[in-house]
Amino acid sequence: MRLQNKVAIITGAASGIGKQIAVTFAREGGLVAIADLNRDAANAAAREIDPTGKRAIGVSMDVTDEKQVDAGTAKVVETFGALDVLVSNAGIQIVAPIVEFEFAKWKQLLAIHLDGAFLTTRAALRQMYKQRSGSVIYMGSVHSKEASVLKAPYVTAKHGLIGLAKVVAKEGAAHGVRANVICPGFVRTPLVEKQIPEQAKELGISQEDVIKKVMLKETVDGEFTTVEDVAETALFLACFASNALTGQSIVVSHGWFMQ
Ligand code: NAD
Fold it and tell me: What's the CA-to-centroid distance between 130 and ligand 1, angstroms?
């Protein structure tokens, strides 16, 4: 049990990558809070993990809303008595060429990825500093390192998370807090399933070609990364024992991007 009785908040954990991280942390003895905009799905995921509600709870949280983030974080600390790990994972994708990108959509995407990361980090650090320990993990992307057409705000936001993680690593060190970024390649979650037909339309190619010639073209083996691959990396970062691993970004992408 690598996370025995450690308390984790995972944002966007009602679905996809975040949900698998919650399942994995719970498997390792962690107490998990599934914080998500979708309250019903968050509660359902928590019940799936622990029907008694003692080791997993759903928390209704829009990560762009300061009050909801602070209240949700306080609820987790009140329920479980501590906060050891934050996984800032909630995210969306919107694809369009820059010349057609609606300003409102640009702002919406940046708010979820960047304001959300800032607000959840601030709330978590206030508790972690009191405990003098903690691990903050950001869900970056290969798009934290690399660009793709049609994804201007996403690439911008994901690059930005690396900057935030480095500042948290520097400020947090004196308080026993580490911060790192996971950078997955394409994972077949609802976020990616939605993009396949959208990109096919924008690029004028088949959905099969979006998968083979766009999403997986640069991988070493033509394989999708899995939610399990990302969750095991999150577990590794969550329980790493020293400041040796802080301010870093780990790419998990079947070799799509090699640093
Ligand atoms: P997903 O769509 O399966 O899950 C995203 C979750 O975030 C949903 O449950 C949604 O309700 C929640 N969410 C959205 N807006 C929110 C908000 N304002 N407040 C709280 N919760 C909100 O997506 P996923 O693929 O699991 O993506 C999770 C993270 O992983 C995202 O940050 C994404 O950018 C990143 N990522 C995904 C991939 C991939 O290929 N799927 C690759 C690299 C990085």
Answer: 29
The domain in which residue 158 lies consists of 7-185+226-252
Residues with CB under 6 A from ligand 1: 11-12, 14-18, 36-38, 61-64, 89-92, 112, 139, 141, 184, 186-187, 189-192
Tokens describing residue 259: 């640093």
49 C-alpha to center of ligand 1: Å? 19
Residue reference for tokens 């020293």:
242
Residue 255, SS3? coil
What was the pLDDT predicted at 19? 98
Same domain, 155 and 82: yes
82 within domain boundaries: yes
Can you tell me whether residue 58 is helix, strand or coil?
A: strand
Residue 108 and residue 113: Cα distance in Å, rounded?
9
- The answer to the question of residue 1 being in a domain is no
The confidence band for 234, taking pLDDT boundaries of 50, 70 and 90, is: very high
Same domain for 175 and 218? no
As a whole number, mean pLDDT of residues 109-138 equals 98
Q: What's the structural domain count of the chain?
A: 2
